[in-house]
Amino acid sequence: MKGYKVTDVNRMRKIGVACRSLHELKQKACTKLNITNDPAEINIYLLDGSLIDEEEYFSTLKPQTTLILQKPGEKVLTDADLLYDTLRRVNIDFLIAGEKASEFLTENLKAKVAVLNNALNKDDSKTAFSSRDEHPEWFHGLETNCATKEAYLHRRCQDRIRGYLYKTIEQIRSSDVFTKDPRARKQLLYAIAFFKMQLKEDHYFGYYFDRSRAKIEALEGADQLDSSACYDHCPCRLKWFDDSTYFRLFGTMEQSDDVDGVKKRNERNSSADTKTEEEEAEENCPYKIRKIEKKMCIALCNQTGEFRCHGMWNEDKCSYGTHKINPYRSKEELVLFSTWNFDHKIERSRTLIPLLLKLASKGTANEADLIEIYDNLFTIKNLRLVHIICHDKSSHK
Questions:
Q1: Measured by CB atoms within 10 angstroms of the end CB, which terminus of the chain is less buried, N or C?
Q2: Distance CA 309, CA 307 (A)
Q3: Residue 262: which H helix or E strand, with range?
């Protein structure tokens, strides 16, 4: 049993919780914080915004780690978000005392991010360093067990993709099609199960931010299938699958690094009286999971870790030409990198999910449709990594 510090999204109260599992932590935290929601609806985050959604990942956290409890519909603010809000709300009178300061803080705020980027220390002497021991100031304040920069950014990219998955599931479940049409509901549950399993197979595309997967490195051993031998710092492990899913996908346990661990977890799962509809859908999902070739798992940055803006959704490239950043260089650039976004060219909430709901209601959703929607939701076929100035949140027509 380990102890943790738990707070809510408002950070107004912090409690101590001793527990043996993520599920137990949710139950005890809800009781102490007087939260009546079902613990299954609760999400747990680290202070840097990383989502803790699996028991295996939770078990790696150090005792006394501070965790944020999020109820449905609430927004989790990272430490960087809170600092920004504090500067704007708490110290705003002081900061805008002069006319020039007022103009700077209240006009064209997005452009100021570019000013901040240019003002950062461009010292490249530690950019190539990878480990915590080599560049300790880069890791300062990050509540993570990641031993390298590559592992940390890999996980951060996975968190972004997981966020799209959870928003997709939430929009599907809140729709009239899902709640009122039993036939469509079954098809949508299969679609959700397919998205989850395929994302596990694709390691939640963490390699997009991982400079160790820059093109020249990714081409080595290009005849191998990445899914069967994931590289060391990717937290996606085949042993995390339960037995039924593993056997359905791969047919054998020979490639598992922890057969006993899988069996023990499966025994825990089988002790439940009933299976959830999600578990039923995952076991009976008719869609085939695709493997991906190692040569296709390529980062969006170069070998040094520099990213360049892909431009607005309706343009071929960044019209500014100067939008670039290297979060591997310094802690300041790592923080600023959080303002860069993935932008869906074909919009998730306005186009892709309504299309899926329409296909399900008509009973015409097939495997090809699901693969196409999956690619547009989660891959760079439809995602563009963009500077905050180039992120157009208006309707993409």
A1: C
A2: 7
A3: helix 259-270
Token output for 290? 């695709």
- Estimate the crossing angle of helix 182-201 against helix 353-362, to 10 degrees: 130
pLDDT at residue number 259: 40
The DSSP element (H or E) to which 67 belongs, if any, is strand 66-70
Question: Which residue ranges form the domains of the chain, and what is each CATH number?
Answer: 2-70 (3.10.20.10), 149-390 (no CATH)
Percent of the chain with pLDDT over 70: 74
Strand order, beta sheet including 2-8: 14-19, 2-8, 66-70, 43-46, 51-52
Residue 300: alpha-carbon gap to chain centroid: 16
- The partner residues of 216 in beta bridges, in order of sequence, read none
Residues 135 and 128: their CA atoms lie apart, in Å, by 10
Give the C-alpha separation, 360 to 112, whole Å. 45
Residue type, 100: K
Amino acid at 357: L
**Is the distance from CB of 210 to CB of 299 less than 8 angstroms?**
yes
Asked if residue 192 has pLDDT above 80, the reply is yes
Residue count (the chain): 397
- pLDDT tens digits for 276-323? 888 888 888 999 999 877 778 899 999 999 999 999 998 988 988 889
Compute the distance between CA of residue 84 and CA of residue 94 in angstroms, rounded to an integer: 15
